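User: Second chain of the day. Same drill as before.
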Amino acid sequence: MIYDDTEICPLCHSVLDEMTEEDRQKMERFSEKGAPYPDVKKRTKQLHFVMRLILFLFILAEICLIVINYFVTPNFWWSGISGAAMIYTYLSMVYWIHHDAGYAAKIGLQLCLTIALLVGIDYFTGMTGWSLQWAIPGVILFGDAIVFFLMMLNRHHWYSYTLLLLLIAIFSIVIISLYFAGKVANIILPVVSAGVTGVYLLGTIIFGDREFARELKRRFHV
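Assistant: Same format as last time:
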């Protein structure tokens, strides 16, 4: 519950519902006595310690893997894949634990990190292009499905996930652009993912024109 005079949540940046009479009464009581806040210092210190421990173990493990890679299989740097996976895991944990953004922002970053991880693995395995042709389009289709289910589960505030859909659309455009740049050989799955995203985005714009426009105006002040 947000008691300030604002239309946007300061934590997840979603559009807020109108305040009910019960909410107004609670606000008046809290303004007189003060709202209770839990003591989170102990929990925060524990989380910081755990995250630092995980970071220490990841760095130590990667150093060991690089040394083993150098002496055992110097012609194939598989330690780069493990390093990319550890970075992906750690950044995901940091964002989901410490960041106060909403689900849409967290899922958007997770998709970005997943795509970066796939490209990194492809790079360290010879950059054959499988990440661009098959893996990333699959992630885009998975992202479309996630946005669809989120909108269905939260129908009253479905427009809060429009920016996530726009991000997925940008990924689709980039993949198609890489085909014309000669970086993608097989265009079948990229076209399918771009088509699904395009139809989904078009339907969102047409059938949710007011909410969609209002969300863009609140986010980008346009």
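Residues 141 and 193 are 6 Å apart (CA to CA).

User: Great, on to the next one.
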